[in-house]
């Protein structure tokens, strides 16, 4: 998926476990066919997983990210009833693995990529609860920081121009109306203060299960981004995950006014535009997700 992508083999994972965490040596190791873009994931026995960064970076910074992710998972566990994988150990770089890596608990369930909850109003109500509870996690006085989604929409102009040009040159999208839509989105004012957000509520980061014939939310993955941001940011879930009627349930449940709802559309648009062209060949599932989100943003009124 990435020009600088690292390759981690199953024998390498088994050797790292044996040398660094002998208590887990001998457990069966097998790679998971995930659609994620950040980590390679391996199943370790029946109750564990190991995650390895797909791209090189500063080992100290990556280890700090893992530590922050562990704290975020603990907060999700404390503030919501939806499970998040809990970190058990951070591994050091070793032969065949130049970056730190992490061992965490395995959660039962299926990702919302594999079982589509788009029409489930019960799932939408679960999302209302999840987002609402995450918003109650104290920001501890910290404002939004960094260059990712959740701050000033206009700071994403350069990236959006790249996405629009790439989409046009690859002929993957009808760019003219999308360019006009971004020009409107980028002017949306920001009035509400930062609240805690998950920051990446996409299908691959949510686990689902069936309960009495309905698809329900079972767990939350990839909590490393948890932190202060625009309250509209987690509303991206409305377009990444839900069709019109279920989306209306989420909007009503979170009591979104018109401005917050439009800013949620803007953040979903910003994310989807990058997915379509960047992962067109290397991760078709993510590319299709971006297309579906854009279709919902441009064709459905809710």
Describe what is shown at a glance.
This protein has about 300 residues and is an alpha+beta fold. It has 2 domains: about 100 residues, 2-Layer Sandwich (Phosphorylase Kinase, domain 1), CATH 3.30.200.20; about 190 residues, Aminoglycoside 3'-phosphotransferase, Chain: A, domain 2.
Determine the structural class based on helices, strands and strand pairing: alpha+beta
Radius of gyration from the CA trace? 19 Å
Major sheet strand order? 1-2-3-5-4
Annotation field: number of helices? 9
Name the CATH superfamily classification of the largest domain: Aminoglycoside phosphotransferase (APH), C-terminal lobe
The level-1 CATH class of the largest domain: Alpha Beta
Helical fraction: 40-55%
CATH architecture of the largest domain: Alpha-Beta Complex
Strand content is 15-25%
Per the principal axes of the C-alpha atoms, what is the gross shape?
Answer: globular
CATH T-level fold name of the largest domain: Aminoglycoside 3'-phosphotransferase, Chain: A, domain 2
Total domain units: 2
What average pLDDT do the residues reach? Answer: 93
Tell me about the biggest sheet?
5 strands, antiparallel
Order of helices and strands: HEEEHEEEHHHEEEEHHHH
- Total beta-strand segments: 10
Distance separating the two termini: 33 Å
């Amino acid at each position: 998926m990435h020009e600088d992508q690292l390759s981690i083999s199953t024998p390498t994972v088994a050797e790292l476990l044996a040398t660094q965490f002998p208590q887990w040596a001998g457990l069966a190791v097998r790679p998971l066919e995930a659609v994620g873009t950040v980590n390679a994931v391996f199943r370790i026995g029946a109750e564990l997983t190991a995650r390895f960064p797909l791209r090189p970076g500063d080992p100290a910074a990556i280890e700090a990210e893992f530590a922050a992710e562990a704290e975020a998972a603990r907060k999700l566990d404390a503030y919501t009833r939806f499970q998040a994988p809990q970190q058990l150990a951070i591994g050091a770089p070793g032969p065949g693995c130049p970056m730190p890596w992490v061992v965490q608990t395995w959660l039962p369930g299926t990702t919302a990529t594999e079982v589509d909850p788009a029409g489930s109003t019960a799932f939408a109500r679960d999302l209302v609860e999840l987002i609402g509870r995450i918003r109650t996690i104290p920001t501890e006085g910290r404002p939004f920081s960094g260059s990712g989604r959740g701050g000033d929409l206009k700071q994403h102009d350069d990236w959006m121009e790249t996405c629009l040009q790439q989409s046009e040159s690859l002929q993957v999208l009808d760019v003219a109306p999308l360019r006009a839509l971004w020009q409107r989105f980028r002017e949306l004012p920001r009035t509400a203060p930062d609240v805690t957000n998950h920051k990446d509520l996409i299908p691959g980061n949510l686990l689902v299960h069936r309960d009495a014939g309905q698809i329900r939310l079972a767990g939350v993955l990839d909590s490393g981004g948890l932190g202060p941001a625009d309250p509209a940011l987690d509303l991206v879930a409305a377009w990444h995950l839900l069709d019109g009627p279920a989306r209306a349930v989420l909007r009503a449940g979170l009591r979104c006014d018109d401005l917050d709802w439009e800013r949620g559309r803007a953040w979903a648009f910003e994310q989807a535009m990058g997915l379509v062209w960047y992962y067109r060949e290397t991760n078709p599932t993510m590319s299709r997700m971006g297309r579906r989100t854009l279709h919902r943003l441009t064709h459905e009124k809710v």
